[in-house]
Amino acid sequence: MPPNLEAHPVHAPRFSLIIPAYNEEAYLPQLLDTVRAARAAYREGPEAIEVIVADNGSTDATAEIARASGCRVVSVAKRVIAAVRNGGAGAARGTLLAFSDADMRIHPETFNAIDDAMRRGRTVAGTTGVTPDRWSLGLVVTFATLLPLVWLTRLDTGVVFCRREDFVRIDGYNEARKYAEDVKFLLDLRRVGRRRGQRLARLRRVKAVVSTRKFDKYGDWHYFTLFPGVLVKLLVDPSATTEFADRYWYHDR
């Protein structure tokens, strides 16, 4: 279902930061500490940034932690990450939308850097990129393998941002996808930007720090040991993608 954003309020904040969350009590406080620092550093003042936690039916203290930190909490029942992002965006009032995963820590200059990029008018949307919270040989090789693709496509991760009206124009995140919805989202925005002579931006000087919990669970080399086998299974049985997506992205907490 396309996102249903509220009519643009008269006194809208500049930013809405949307954080999808399911049982994130272990990581959310770290993120919100860095969000607080980034809001304080924002040149238009912290009140120009609202923070929305889209709670996807958490059974831990995620919602309570968010409320105690002054976030707006929006409940989203549908267990699809695209729907959770859309649910948070549906409550957003900002002219710029930004999305951060709950297991990240954002750079203190994040909002200033995004604001600068969007005010110049040459950017349709973008990302900050990420750096992992630890390194190993397996992680170095994984990132080095993925980096050329990022350079060629400008499709990155981290804090993802766009204008509110462009989010509406592309109907937000595709809720038919259980994974890679973020890639589709940026591809859709890139098409919008091409018609206006705009491009995707990568704000590498304000990279977010991302948790390596997937690597902690599946191993530092699992992109090379796990994913090739999954691709082979998909060639034989396309329905295997649903089982893998549920196990890898949805049933780990």
Topology:
Blueprint: E1 15-21, H1 28-41, E2 49-55, H2 62-68, E3 72-75, H3 81-90, E4 96-99, E5 104-105, H4 110-119, E6 123-127, E7 130-132, H5 137-153, E8 160-163, H6 164-169, H7 181-195, E9 199-202, E10 208-210, H8 213-218, H9 222-225, H10 227-236, H11 240-250
Parallel strand pairs: 1-2, 1-4, 2-3, 6-9, 7-10
Antiparallel strand pairs: 4-8, 5-10, 6-8
Give a structural overview.
The protein has 253 residues and is an alpha/beta fold. The protein has one domain: Alpha-Beta Complex (Spore Coat Polysaccharide Biosynthesis Protein SpsA, Chain A), CATH 3.90.550.10. It contains eleven helices and ten strands. The strands form two sheets. Strands 3-2-1-4-8-6-9 form a seven-stranded mixed beta sheet, with helices on both faces. The longest helix is centred in the middle third of the chain and has 17 residues, at 137-153. The radius of gyration is 18 Å and the shape is globular.
Q: Main traits of this protein?
A:
253 residues; single chain; alpha/beta; 43% helix; three-stranded mixed β-sheet; 10 strands; globular; Spore Coat Polysaccharide Biosynthesis Protein SpsA, Chain A; seven-stranded mixed β-sheet
Summarize the structure.
The protein has 253 residues and is α/β, with parallel strands linked by helices. The chain has helices at 28-41, 62-68, 81-90, 110-119, 137-153, 164-169, 181-195, 213-218, 222-225, 227-236, 240-250; strands at 15-21, 49-55, 72-75, 96-99, 104-105, 123-127, 130-132, 160-163, 199-202, 208-210. A seven-stranded mixed β-sheet has the order 3-2-1-4-8-6-9, with helices on both faces.
